[in-house]
Automatic annotation (TrEMBL):
Belongs to the type-1 OGG1 family. Residues 233-242 have a biased composition (Basic and acidic residues). Keywords: DNA damage, DNA repair, Glycosidase, Hydrolase, Lyase, Multifunctional enzyme, Nucleus. Gene3D superfamilies: Helix-hairpin-Helix base-excision DNA repair enzymes (C-terminal), Hypothetical protein, domain 2. It catalyses: 2'-deoxyribonucleotide-(2'-deoxyribose 5'-phosphate)-2'-deoxyribonucleotide-DNA = a 3'-end 2'-deoxyribonucleotide-(2,3-dehydro-2,3-deoxyribose 5'-phosphate)-DNA + a 5'-end 5'-phospho-2'-deoxyribonucleoside-DNA + H(+). Its EC number is 4.2.99.18. One of its GO terms (molecular function) is class I DNA-(apurinic or apyrimidinic site) endonuclease activity. This is N-glycosylase/DNA lyase. SUPFAM superfamilies: DNA-glycosylase (SSF48150), TATA-box binding protein-like (SSF55945). It is an enzyme of class 4 (lyase).
Amino acid sequence: MNFDLTLLLNVDKAFVAYPYSKGEVLENSQQLQDYFQLNVKLDPLYKEWSKVDKQFSKVAKHYPGVRMLRQDPVENVFSFICSSNNNIKRISSMVEHMSTEYGSYLGSINDKDYHSFPTVEQLNKDKNIEENLRKLSYQDAKEQLIQLPGVGPKVADCILLMSLDKAGAIPVDTHMFQIAARYYLPHLVGKKSVNSKIYLEIGDYFRDLFGDYAGWAHSVLFSADLKHLQGMKNKDDIEGKPPTKKARKQKPA
């Protein structure tokens, strides 16, 4: 595969370089715009989230430009199913194997062949499932996903947030539970596990606080917490109090 030019996209005051061949610039530009969801302007969202949450305001300056990628739903579903009781290396290997076995050949770079992740049609499933899920409400789409083997509430929320345009979905894992207990819902301190009631409470709290794009705000807090665990944050940025002001209550579409 030979590349003639490099396409530069302005993403949150930075640039993404993408190689392409002549005649492909428009198609590649549209694909990247969609993949990075560049129609969503982060600056106004960061400002609004910082107004309603002091903790977000503290960490946001260190983590600008945290975006939700608009990933392929089929690949995302299978990737999360593969993630159960596996490490990242094994998950990547399983996804690559499915792509090689069932996907379409894309090209070779440095003598390595690359394949797309198989489509629903290639996996002999209902070809309209993605379109149907996008049309459903957040709750209805989540109930549909949970019916799949290996998909629970958290995985369903990950898929809804990352692939099905449900920007208010809040995946609650151990990190988000700890963040909620530490900064926002102190009565959760001492709870040993996340049951369905606590899961819903945390999700609803962040949706009430951050509004329609609560899932994006959650990702900034999640990223900041991972850096904190790696010892890469200042002490002043990990101390905070529950926010005193909330945005107007909104539910995910």
